[in-house]
Amino acid sequence: MIANTFSTINHVNSGDVAWILTATALVLLMTLGIGFYYGGLVQRKNASSIILQSLLIMCLIGTIWPILAYSLAFSPSILGGLTGGFDYVMLRDVWEKSTSSIPGLLDMAFKCTFAMVAASLVIGGFAERMRLSAFILFVPAWILLVYCPIAHWLWGNHPGDEGFFALKNAGTLDFAGGMVVHLNAGIAALVAGLLLGRRPGFPDHIQSGHNVNFCILGAGLIWFGWIGFNAGSGGAANTVAVYALINTIFAASTAGLTWILMDKVLLGRVSGIGLISGVVSGLVAITPASGFVEPAAALAIGALASVVSFIAISVLKQILRVDDSLDVFAVHGVSAIWGALATGLFATLAVNPDGGDGVFYGDPSQIVKQLRGLAYVLVWSGLVTYIILKVIDLIVGIQPNQKQQALGLDAAQFAMIERPPIHLLQKFRRKSKPQNDDQDRQAPR
C-alpha cells in the first residue's frame, strides 16, 4: 500500500522535498517543450500532430509507469540483472523504499518524467511518417522493453547487485541520463529512421522548419526544464545540485556560441536553428557529467559537443543517407556519446564523493567503464527497438499510406482541420431525420 505520511519516514528533509517537487514540474514541462521544438521543425501540415504526440506520451507513460514500468526499472534485479522485478508493481512498498531525504513516491514521480522525455525524443526519428495506432503501441513497448532495462543497469542497481548488467555498481557514471535518456533515444530514433525509410520528397521537396518561433519557444522551455533535469538528479538540495545547475547553464551557453561561430566561419551565415541545436547539444553532453565535474570542464564539454554534433549533421548524416527527420541521433545521440566519454575524463570526487575520478584526476579505468556503458546502450537500444518496430509493423502497419502523408498527419490522424464542431447529438439527429421524413410522407391524412 502507498498510503502513508511524512511522519512515518524519519529522514525526510522538507527542503529536499520542496526542490524535487519543483524539479519534477520542470522536467514535466520539457516534454511539451520538445513538442513545440519538433513541431516548429516539421512541415506545417504535421506540426499539431507532433505536439499532440508529446501530450499523448505524457498520458501513456503517466499510466504505465506506476502500474509496471517503475518496478521494472528500480525493483531488485531479476533475470541475472537484466531488469528489475515486480516488487513495486502498482507502487507497492514504494514508501518503504525511501532511503534518502525524499519519499520514495516522490522519487518515483521524478523518474517518471525522465521516461516521458526519452520517449518524446524518439519522435524525431519517425516524425511525419508513423501511424497513430502504431505510435500508441510503440511507446509503452519501448519504455518497458528498452528504457526500463537500461535505467535499471545504470540507475536501479541495489547494493550487492553484481554480474553482466550491473553497470552502476561496476562504476559507470551517468548522473542525469546522458546514456539512459539521450543516447538511448538517439539510437532508437536512428533505427526508426532507417527502418521507416525516407519521407516522400526527401530531401529536396520537404519544406521543414515552418515555424522558427515554435522552435525558439520549445528550446526555451527545454533549457528551463533541464535545470530540474540535471540539478534534481542528485535527489537533494545540496552542493552537488549547485554544481549540476551551474554546469548545465555554462555548457549550454558555450555550445550555442560555438555552433553559431561555426555557422558563420564555415557557412557564411548565422542560423537560428543552428543556435538552438548548439544549445541542445551542450545540454545533452553535460547531462551525464553535470553532477561530477567542475564548471571549467563544463565549458569544454559544451564547446566540443557543438563540434561533434555539427560534424554529425554535416558529414555523418550524409554518409548514412538516413531521414532522421529532426536530427535526434546527430544531436542527442552523438552529444550523449561525447558527454559519457567526457565524464570519464573530467569527473572528480571533489565535486561528488559518490562519483569517481576520471582520467584527468588519476583514474584511467573510468573511461573503460564509460565505454562499457555506451556499448550496452548502443546494442540493446538498437536491437530491441528494431524488433519492436518490426512486430508492430506486422500487427497494425507502421506507416500511413501515401495519400495520408500527402494530406498531413494533422488531418489524417488527428482530425486537426478547420471545420464546424460536430457533436454526437447532432450526428444522431442527422441520421434519424430522413427516417422521420419517410414516416411523415407515409402517414394517412
Q: Can you walk me through this structure?
A:
It is globular, with a radius of gyration of 24 Å. The protein starts with 13 loop residues before the first helix and ends with a helix. The chain has 445 residues and is mainly α. Helix content is 65%, strand content 1%.
**How does the overall form come out from the CA principal axes?**
globular
What level of helicity do the residues show? 55-70%
Radius of gyration: 24 Å
Average predicted local confidence, pLDDT: 89
Largest β sheet strand count, sense and barrel closure: 2 strands, antiparallel
> Gap between N and C termini, in Å?
71 Å
For the record, the CATH architecture stands as Orthogonal Bundle
Structural class: mainly alpha
Number of DSSP strand runs: 2
Can you tell me the CATH superfamily?
Ammonium transporter AmtB like domains
Q: What's the CATH topology name?
A: Ammonium transporter fold
Order of H and E elements: HHEEHHHHHHHHHHHH
In percent terms, what proportion of residues is strand?
under 5%
Poorly predicted residue ranges: 437-445
Largest beta sheet: what is the strand line-up? Answer: 1-2
